[in-house]
Design goal:
- The chain is built from 10 helices and 5 strands, in the order βαβαββααααααααβ.
- It has helices at residues 10-21, 37-40, 62-70, 85-111, 116-123, 129-149, 154-175, 189-198, 219-230, 232-244; strands spanning 2-5, 26-30, 51-53, 58-60, 254-256.
- It starts with a strand and ends with a strand.
- Strands 4-3-1-2-5 form a 5-stranded mixed sheet.
- The chain binds glutathione (GSH).
- Glutathione (GSH) binds at residues 6, 9, 11, 47-50, 61-63, 96, 104.
Length: 258
Amino acid sequence: MRLITIPMSHYCEKARWGLVHAGVDYVEEAHLQVLHYPAVRPHNSGGKVPVLLTGTEAIADSTAILQFLDRGLPDSCKLYPEDQRGEIEALEERFDETLGVETRRWVYFHWMSLPVREVLKTAAQGTPRWQGIAAPMLFPLLRLYLSRRLAISPDNIEKGLHIIAASFDEVAARIGDGRPFLCGSRFTAADLSFACMASPVLLPPEYGIHLPTLEDAPARARVDVQRFRAHPAGQFALRLFRENRRNAVGQAGVRYTG
Ligand SMILES: N[C@@H](CCC(=O)N[C@@H](CS)C(=O)NCC(=O)O)C(=O)O
């Protein structure tokens, strides 16, 4: 299988984690933001990644990819066990559409303030060489385009931080009774999605590409990362990455085409 990605995207991380969970060997076709459109549009007219090419079909959207992979898994490994499907899907949808949108806006706000070379250390991993070469010239335009597309403004970042904190509080309340996972005793798509959507403000070392360390993060971002890492829900997501996100960078399961 072939997974088309923007490598730093947490929606793409969701798909990578799903593939690893399903034990599927795949190749990642990574592209820089915006330069990914020509590769994606033939399969997904909306231009969004991740897109999974299975050989017979193109599956766009991280949730659709997880659900496709789940159909091939034995009951004991399913991320959507039938008796809890409704609850899992509702949580996943909320994490993807609320938490994930705000953590993405937050990460672009902070990282686009860095020099392009620093941005590319994270963003260009696994992408074709020509994209890394072209990016510094295109960067001012890309920055403007992404700022508008993601409605980035200091005001929206401030509001977003409240939304992220509310989502973390909700997760902390859920696991406050001592349950190991969001829906009880087993790891599901709700856990996977929460960990991925929270990852921009946590910088977990097990992420499918190398994220900056806390020390390399822009100073203003560091304060937020420290705060969210210390939160019980942040601790929970970091544990999920440690214990359930097997197959980290460089191990079998993923090869880059870039
Ligand atoms: N709900 C979708 C969201 C996917 C998404 O927003 N992908 C972003 C990457 S973070 C994208 O492709 N953006 C490119 C664009 O909108 O032009 C999913 O779960 O896959």
